[in-house]
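input
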Amino acid sequence: MKTVFALGVLGLILLEIALVYFIMPLPGSQRMQSIDLAYALHSWRWPLRAVFAGMILGGSLFGWRRGGARRWVVPTSLVLVAVVAYMTNFRMAADRIFLPPTALTMQPAARNKVATDRLVVGVAVEGSARAYPLQFIGYHHQVRDSIAGQPILVSYCTVCRTGRVFRPVVDGRVESFRLVGMDHFNAMFEDQTTKSWWRQASGEAVAGPHKGKALAEVPSQQVTLARWLSLHPTSLIMQGDSTFAEEYAKDYAFEKGTSRKKLTGTDTASWNDKSWVVGVTINDKSKAYDWNRLRRERVVNDEVGGTPIVLALASDTASFFAFVRPNDSTTFTIRGDSLISPGGAYALTGRGAAGELKPVKASQEFWHSWRTFQPTTDRY
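output
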């Protein structure tokens, strides 16, 4: 019975640690192909807990009846198990570290309190526009809202530097999600209905009954709030929730790339794990563009998936835009905040005297994130 008790204690401690280890940024955990194991442990955690608890209970009753020094082993072991369970389930659980806003407050520019040089994830649908500052959504990881009468899930992962907006609809039903952890350094959400796990960078379900399905992505842009308001002057802007005032980023270190934190800091060199890239995917072909080069040149004429594109950086050196070029032979230069082509000038809205350029989805990410989730990507 001593062995049973010891195995029960050890088994329960290892289970609680494993439930956190594989889905949180702990040494070595995020570089493993362990999502299936992590999900299996998560799904079977209560039956496994019951088995180990039964072993502990049986062994402890035996030890207590025997008396002597053994009696002190029982409460000491139970305290150790309780401490580990508390730490892993309450102090290290992702959805207890990063909480959703208690209320979502959106204000027009006239009542906005967010500095206009902060970065935002902007969404524009059917004439409606909304902006979500990184300083807020970087903490919350997900914000639920609606635009043009449709629900949206605005998500951000600071460890990958990925901002994504999705339709939170699965099989025709509006779904709720909680932050469950991360996989390969990318935030992962769990749906309320089936407990499937969904990857933030792609909106794809990677484990559970919905594995293989994907949430529909809503086009978004990462720009400064000033730039966003110049494009969408009637936009509403998310305001900070006073409940989390201490949690929000007070400085610009993450946004401007001056942070050197291990998980969220930026490497100023090119093509290292924490270097910035702008990623573009067209016709199932992906390409990454070095942010340092884009800052030097400000405009890139290229093609992705057989489609000619132009990638441009605004004069604020933070807001970037991508468009389909009219044809292979048309190339652009940039002057101020205008794209110049042989056929005329275009604003960074894509509008010009010769017509309107079709926008292309482009995302700024850490290089390790882009190459992990687009493993066949090319580099410009």
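quick obs: The chain has a mean pLDDT of 94.
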